[in-house]
Amino acid sequence: MQDTEPILLDRDCEVIQIPSGARSRLMAGTRVQVLESAPGSYTIRAGQGVLYRVDARDGGALRLSAPEAGNPVAPERFREEMILEQLKKVRDPEIPVNIVDLGLIYSSDVLSLEGGAKKIEIRMSLTAPGCGMSDVIKGEVKSRLEQLPEVTEVAVEVVFDPPWNAGMMSEAAKLQLGFDLDYGAPQGNSSAFTIIR
Q1: Less crowded by CB within 10 Å, the N or C end of the chain?
Q2: Is the pTM higher than 0.85?
Q3: For strand 118-124 and strand 151-158, is the pairing parallel, antiparallel, or unpaired?
Q4: Which H/E stretch holds residue 175?
Q5: What is the pLDDT of residues 65-123, one digit of tens each?
Q6: In this structure, are residues 101 and 169 in contact, taking their beta carbons and an 8 Å threshold?
Q7: DSSP string spanning 131-154?
């Protein structure tokens, strides 16, 4: 994350507190610092170091233009690779890495429906059970996959068996977060699930 100079909000702004997931409102004039700009959202710090997620539509309150929201996928035929492309745009709000490289996506299945429509079923985990941002992350996964051509239904299931651990991260994520590349191999029976990368 890269800090910017503190600014005062131009107007009231809807926010989601990190990591609790509690929704609230910051009032115009609140002093904040933008820590990260990601597709579709910002991470800011306000008050006594409290972190919040701000939707891109409220970028004006931060005196910023909206971060590139990941343009809707151009009309074309559905390809399974598109799922991975969309999932790599979703980031854990507390960790500046996408959920694919974090090893949070356990499986992705595509079911054919009537009329050539598709249903995508995702099994994923979180870095910690009880994460208050669970609904936010699930909602973003669902929203991004619903943009894909021919996709009419998306089901996202959060599971904790096997529990996530840092050994499930890609090498790129480990390097980005400063982990030793040999840190932690996946625990448990690795044949019980497949991490999608």
Answers
A1: N
A2: no
A3: parallel
A4: helix 171-177
A5: 655 545 555 568 899 999 999 999 998 888 889 999 999 999 999 999 999 899 999 99
A6: yes
A7: -TTHHHHHHHHHHHHHTSTTEEEE
Q: Rg of the chain's alpha carbons, rounded to an integer? A: 18
Provide the token pair at 37: 């700009």
> What is the full DSSP assignment across 33-66?
EEEEEETTEEEEEETTTEEEEEEGGGGGGGT-PP
Q: For the segment 12-49, what is each residue's pLDDT rounded down to a tens digit?
A: 999 988 888 888 999 999 999 888 887 778 888 888 88
CATH of domain 7-62: 2.30.30.40
Q: Give 180's contacts (C-beta < 8 A, 6+ positions apart).
A: 174
Amino acid letter, 63: R
Report phi then psi at 62, rounded to 5: -95, 5
Which CATH architecture group holds 81-192?
2-Layer Sandwich (3.30)
Biggest CA-to-CA distance, the chain: 54
- Where along the chain do its domains lie? 7-62, 81-192
Distance of CA 69 to the CA centre of its chain: 13
Which candidate, 49, 162, 50, places its Cα nearest to that of 103?
162
Q: In whole angstroms, what separates CA 150 from the centre of its chain? A: 23
